[in-house]
Design brief:
The structure holds two protein chains of two kinds.
Chain A: H1 3-24, H2 30-35, H3 42-53, H4 56-69, H5 74-98, H6 103-110, H7 114-147, H8 151-201, H9 206-209, H10 221-231, H11 244-259, H12 262-265, H13 274-310, H14 320-328, E1 331-333, E2 357-361, E3 367-369, E4 381-383, H15 388-395, H16 400-438, H17 444-467, H18 473-486, H19 488-497, H20 503-527, H21 546-564, H22 570-580
Antiparallel strand pairs in A: 1-4, 2-3
Helix pairs in contact in A: 1-8, 1-16, 3-8, 3-13, 4-13, 4-16, 5-11, 5-13, 5-22, 6-7, 7-8, 7-16, 7-17, 7-18, 7-20, 8-13, 8-16, 8-17, 10-13, 11-18, 11-21, 13-15, 15-16, 16-17, 18-20, 18-21, 19-20, 19-21, 20-21
Chain B: H1 2-33, H2 35-38, E1 42-43, E2 46-47, H3 48-84
Antiparallel strand pairs in B: 1-2
Helix pairs in contact in B: 1-3
Classes of the chains: A mainly alpha, B mainly alpha.
């Protein structure tokens, strides 16, 4: 059986499973639709949270990013897991005790203000759509490479599946599909990692293989990798390139951003009690850590294998995965020294970084490029970082069924996150904007109908993002975390831990954090990308890490404005007292 | 009644604060600020600072949350026992 045929079977089987679960778990009330009836078991919720959280970025892109960033890649590992400690200790149990449906719900009631609620809805929609755009790119890549269908068809099929279980089942449908998706994605991630670990180091557990010696050798994998990367002109794999302050701020922005992401927080509204919310955060982090501790091992294996399999190889005898990805347009080779061999070293091979292909073929059959060569280095290849996880099993020459499994896993990761995001968008529209602000007279049944319509509209918009991906997808990811850290985290944290905080303080804080962070990112990413380097950054902090400063600004504004304005009414004090009790 | 909830909240804050100190040391401390210094020490094939940044901090995060679940369960139990008396 060909790999492509196996991929069709795996992807088809998992899609059938998701649809089956959706039919079984239809939502009958707003309580079902928004928070899955509040009776999800903590372990099941842990799995659903893990699937919700681990997106196409975690599954497809992260290991590839780390493979190229080396130790600097630690910011993603610590940032995207450490946030769960904050979530578990500072937010989840209290927000569960509050016991409503959405994050803007809490902000609106705690700060007794419709303005605060609307501001929260705007931040939420912006953060969530930014995030969805990335998921759609993931779906597109998997479909085009492994099923060889058009990216647009891939996106439409993916959207149809999400539409089916999100609109029909709401949170209830999404939760139980996410449990299944977690199982698919973790299996698909671990199996190739274990195989490659055995091949390279003889160790079954990748986390141990990562720190072991190579097969038939006394040399540790990481030492060899340090040596090889240095020889090719890179900084050693286990050393930092970024400055410590930048690493510190990016990690902090990712952690606090994680804790402030509405689609993650809302998962803790679905469990039956405060104790269950605490436990559930623990289970979620175990399930996430399983992938996040494997990822850096995969990165090191992949970097090593990649260099071994292409360095100084004649293009004509290069491995088939190399040519396959070149056809998709995610690998490019420019024979700068005309020796017919592939040379890989530090620096960008091409001017303007990304390859622009011509219709013509070169003497060895390679796709010719419009780009001028970058003559300041000897590097001849461009490799898109998003392909590393997908290409890894092929690079390591694993059997076809593993490659098919990885494709199904990548789709599970992208679809589960997209569904979670669509749900928070639709519930904030139907619940916070319609029911609580503009149309308070609607019945529960009507609200449920509006929630479904909002979900359908959101899916359509997400689909358009997938088919016409905005060129700036990669650049705006920093937005989602930076903005969540600079807006939601302080408002939620102070709302629980500082009773005296009033609406004036909270609103000014959120607005200040939002405007500061957004303008810094827009300035360096879009208005003046030429000066986006550490000489011009504020205190040497990159746009990725600026959310950390935005958050400090939010805290400072919120606390100082509160002191000079009227304290909140007594029932808010009572409400905070109430949520502090288990 | 007021007094007891005050005491519960104070005990809760103490637990949360101590665990966050561990959280900070494991990630920002060992993984970033002192990472290069710790790299002098080796743990098998890993430099220790690198190991904390890419592996160790994550294991410690998991332990912190379960420690929190356990400590809070104990505290909640104490509160409900006091209420019965």
């Amino acid at each position: 059986m060909t790999t492509q045929f196996l991929t069709y079977i795996f992807v088809g089987a998992t899609f059938a499973l998701y649809i089956g679960i959706a039919l079984w778990s239809r939502a009958r009330s707003t309580n079902d639709f928004y928070v899955a009836g509040k009776d999800v078991h903590p372990v099941a919720n842990g799995m659903a949270t893990a699937a919700d959280w681990m997106s196409a970025a975690s599954f497809l892109s992260m290991a590839g990013l780390i493979a190229f960033l080396g130790k600097d890649g630690s910011v993603y590992l610590m940032g995207w897991t450490g946030g769960y400690v904050l979530l578990a200790l500072l937010l989840a149990p209290y927000l569960r005790k509050f016991g409503k449906f959405t994050v803007p719900d809490f902000i609106g009631e705690r700060y007794y203000s419709k303005t605060a609620r609307k501001l929260a809805v705007v931040c939420l929609i912006f953060i969530s759509f930014t995030y969805i755009a990335g998921q759609m790119r993931g779906v597109g890549i998997v479909f085009s490479r492994f099923l060889e269908v058009d990216i647009n068809t891939g996106v439409i099929v993916g959207m149809a599946i999400v539409f089916f279980y999100a609109v029909l089942g709401g949170m209830k449908g999404i939760t139980y599909t996410q449990v299944a998706q977690y199982c698919v994605l973790i299996f698909a991630y671990l199996v190739p990692a274990i195989f490659i670990s055995i091949l390279m180091t003889g160790e079954v557990i990748p986390q141990i293989g990562f720190g072991s010696t190579l097969v038939d050798s006394q040399v540790y994998l990481l030492d060899k990798l340090d040596q090889v990367t240095k020889d090719l002109g890179f900084v050693a794999y286990t050393e930092n390139v970024k400055s410590n302050i930048d690493i510190f701020c990016i990690t902090a922005a990712l952690m606090f951003g994680t804790a402030g992401l509405p689609h993650v927080i809302v998962r803790f509204f679905t469990v039956p009690s405060v104790g269950a919310a605490r436990q559930s955060a623990g289970y979620a982090l175990i399930f996430i850590a399983l992938l996040y501790t494997t990822a850096p091992a995969v990165s090191a294996f992949a970097r090593m294998n990649l260099i071994d399999s292409i360095q100084d190889q004649p293009y004509s005898s290069s491995p088939s995965w190399f040519k396959n990805w070149e056809e998709i347009g995610l690998i490019a080779w420019m024979d700068k020294n005309a020796d017919g061999k592939i040379q890989y070293s530090s620096g960008n091979a091409l001017e303007n970084v990304k390859p622009i292909y011509q219709e013509l073929r070169g003497p060895k059959g390679q796709r010719l490029l419009e780009n001028e060569p970058n003559l300041s280095n000897e590097n001849e290849i461009y490799i898109d970082r998003d392909i590393i996880v997908l290409a890894n099993p092929e690079i390591a020459q694993l059997p076809g069924w593993i490659i098919a499994l990885v494709a199904a896993g990548g789709l599970a990761a992208a679809l589960s996150t997209a569904a979670g995001l669509l749900l928070v968008i639709s519930s904030s529209v139907s619940h916070d904007l319609l029911k609580k602000t503009y149309m308070p007279q609607i019945t529960e049944k009507q609200e449920l109908k509006y929630a479904r319509i909002a979900a359908a509209v959101a899916i359509a918009i997400a689909g358009i993002f997938g088919i016409y991906p905005p060129a700036f997808v990669a650049q705006v990811v920093a937005f989602a975390f930076g903005l969540a850290a600079a807006t939601f985290f302080p408002a939620l944290f102070l709302g629980i831990f500082y009773k005296r905080l009033n609406k004036e303080g909270a609103i000014t804080g959120m607005l200040g954090g939002l405007l500061f962070t957004a303008s810094y990112i827009i300035y360096f990413k879009f208005i003046n990308p030429d000066i986006n380097n550490s000489d011009f950054w504020f205190l040497g902090i990159s746009p990725e890490g600026i959310g950390c400063i935005g958050m400090i600004l939010n805290f400072a504004l919120a606390l100082s404005i509160s002191i000079f304005t009227k304290p909140p009414p007594k029932d808010v004090f009572d409400m905070v007292d109430e949520i502090r009790q288990p | 009644m007021k007094d007891k909830t005050q005491k519960y909240w104070k005990a809760n804050l103490k637990i949360v604060f101590s665990l966050l100190v561990i959280w900070f040391i494991a990630s920002f401390g060992f993984g970033i600020i002192f990472s290069d210094t710790l790299d002098q020490i080796r743990l098998g094939g890993f430099k220790l600072g690198f190991w904390f940044a890419q592996q160790g901090s994550i294991y410690i995060f998991v332990i912190i949350i379960f420690l929190y679940v356990w400590l809070m369960k104990r505290l909640d139990k104490k509160l409900s026992e006091e209420e019965e008396i």
